[in-house]
Amino acid sequence: MEPVRCSIKLQVVTATAVFAVSVVAGGLFVLRYPAAVWQDSPVVAASPGSVLPNPPRYEWRANERTVVLAMHVGCPYCEDSIEFYERLSALERSRAITAHVVAVFPESAVDIRRALAGRLSAVQTLQRVDLRRLRVVATPTVMLVNSQGRVLNVWVGQLSPSGEAAVIKAAAAHQPPF
User: Fold this and answer.
1) How far is Cα 175 from Cα 178, in angstroms, rounded to an integer?
2) What homologous superfamily does CATH list for 60-172?
3) What gap in Å lies between CA 59 and CA 131, rounded to an integer?
4) Distance between CA atoms of residues 75 and 63, nearest Å
5) Cα 142 to the chain's mean position, in Å?
6) What is the pLDDT of residues 5-58, one digit of tens each?
7) What global pTM score does this model have?
8) Which end of the chain, N or C, is less packed with Cβ atoms under 10 Å?
9) Domain residue spans of the chain
10) Which among 122, 101, 149, 112 has a CA at the least distance from the CA of 36?
11) What angle (nearest 5°) sits at the alpha carbon of residue 164, between those of residues 122 and 76?
């Protein structure tokens, strides 16, 4: 009877250990992916032809075309893309591209300033934007939007050099409205 008791104790200890590891791993997963990523209902990603609502404190009609940089504080791919976004901003200032560049974040201005640490200072930044309303399902996302809020192009994720070139070409080109 003694081997059976040891076997049961071993099973209880093993099950408890597996449960504890699962709870810790699940907790780390939830902490790793911020609440802004979790959604109550599925969001259909923006695609060319989609019409988006104006983000808070910005109107699409203010510019013929807008390059939207949808980012999230703490997103490593967003961090790695900032150098490209600064180049886009410099191209806008030099009038090499005709679209206006706007960065949108779901976080507060304080959190954004702390995360950017002076970078993207020339880019108009919108805070506390519900990225789901703009149909952003992952960050970073770059969208080219016309003055009616219609999406002309979408690029999701950290872009390759050819993807960056495609954004610049699209932002520089004078495209007729949809």
Assistant:
1) 9
2) Glutaredoxin (3.40.30.10)
3) 16
4) 28
5) 8
6) 666 676 666 666 566 556 555 554 444 444 444 444 566 788 899 999 999 999
7) 0.73
8) N
9) 2-32, 60-172
10) 112
11) 70
